[in-house]
Design a protein that fits this description.
By secondary structure, the protein is an alpha/beta fold. Helix content is 44%, strand content 13%. It has 17 helices and eleven strands. Helix 10 links the parallel strand 4 and strand 5 (249-253). The mean pLDDT is 97. The structure holds pyridoxal-5'-phosphate (PLP). Pyridoxal-5'-phosphate binds at residues 79, 138-140, 173, 175, 224, 228, 253, 255-256, 282, 294.
Length: 451
Amino acid sequence: MHVFDADIEALASHVVEYALDRIRMRPPLDGPMEIPRLATAPVTITAEGIGGQTALEEFDERFSRACISVDHPGYLSFVPGAPSMASVLFDLVVGASSVYGGSWLEGAGAIHLENETLRWIADLAGFGADAGGVFVSGGTAGNLSALAAARFRHRRDHGDHGRAVFLASAEAHSSVASAARIMDAEVVPVPVDADRRLTAAAVEATVADLPVDVVERICAVVATSGTTNLGVIDELDGLGHLTRERDWWFHVDGAYGGAALCLPELAADFAGIELADSFIVDPHKWLFGPFDSCALVYADPTVARAAHTQNAGYLDVLNESGDWNPSDYAHHLSRRARGLPLWFSLATHGTDTYRESVRAGVEHARTAAELIEDHPAWELLWGPKLSIVLFERPGWSADEHQRWSDSLLEAGLGLVVPTKFDGRSVLRFCIINPLSDGSVLREILDHPGPS
Ligand SMILES: Cc1ncc(COP(=O)(O)O)c(C=O)c1O
C-alpha cells in the first residue's frame, strides 16, 4: 500500500489517464438521471478490496455520472466553478506531495507561495503591507473565522458585554447568519436601498433605533461585494468610513464577486474595500480554482492570530517560534495547502489572462441580458449585475419554471434552477465559466421545456 510497485505503477497510469481524459473532454453534465442506478450499486468497500482499477471503473461508469459537473458551460446556477486545467493538474500535485499547510515548520515553501497568492489578492483590494491571511475551505468558513476575529477584537478593546451583534443586509449570504448562530451572536438586519445595496445611511438609521445595550455589542458590519442572488456590491466606501468612525470591524464578503476586483472598469464599484478589516474571495468560484478554497485576508492579521491560535503542549514548539503558521488565522488546525492550485494557475497564465477570463463572465452576462430581452418567450427582471441575470416566463407559475429547469437538465443542456426575487420564483443565470458563451446561452434560452 505504501510501496511503489508494478501494480501501483499500472494504477497510476490509469488514474492519470482518467484525470487527463476528464479535463480533455467537454465535461458531461450528468446528474440526477443516473441517481437511480446508485440504489443498485455494488458494495465497493470489502475486506479484500476490489482493486484500484475496478474501483476507478466503477467511479467512472456509475458514480461520477450521478454527479453534475459544475464546470459544464451550461451550469449557470448557484455559483458555478470552472477550474483552469493548470489548477486541476496542480491539485493532483498537492495531493501527491503530502504537504502539511498548517505550520511554517512543515510547509514553509508551500506557505510562501500561498502567501504570494494572498498578496496578489490583498493588493487588488488595496490592503496595506501588513495584510495576510490563509486559504480556508470556503466562504462559509471564511466568514465565520473573520467574524470570530471581529468579536475577539471588540471584546479585547471594549470588554465583554454579552452576545455579539453583527449588522448585515438581508441580501448577505446565508453563511453570515450561520456564523452568528454558531457563535451565539445576533445579526441585526439592515434594509437595502432601491438598488439593493447596504449603505452607510441605512446602517446609521438602523443603529439609531437600537437600544444602547445592543449598540455597545455591535462588533462588525458585514458588506457583500457581489451578493449571491443579485450580484450587487454594497456601498463599501460609506460603510468603510462609518465602521472606522464607530470602531466596528468591517468585513467584506467577496466570496463570489471579489474576483471582479481585477477588472479596472469596475474599480469605482469596489471603492472602499481597502478600508475593510477582513475580506474573502473564493478561488473555487470566479478565480478558476478547484474546490475547496476561500482566500481570507485580514488587514491586521495579529488580531486574527490572537483570536484563533490553538494552544496545547504539543503545539508550543510552533506557537513559540514566531513563524507564520496558517493554522493561526482561522477556525482550523490541520490543512492542505489548498491555495496552491490557484497559485499554479496564476503563475502559469499570468494575471492578465485572469483578468480576461473574469471579464468574460461579465461580458457573457451582458450577452445573456440582451438575448433575454430579444427573446419572445422570456422577460428580463434583473441585471446584468456582475455576472448575474434574473428572468422569467411571463405568466408561468413556480411549478412551470421548475419543470422547465428539470427538463433542461434532463436534456443535458444545463443547470438553471429557480431562485426567489421579491418572493417570486424566477430563473437566474450566474455566469463565471468563460465557455458559457452566447451560443450556450442561446441554446438554453431556446429550450422549449417539457413537451
Ligand atoms: C457571497 C457568498 N458568501 C459566502 C458563500 C459561501 O461560500 P462556500 O459555499 O464556499 O462556503 C457564498 C456561496 O455562494 C457566496 O456567494
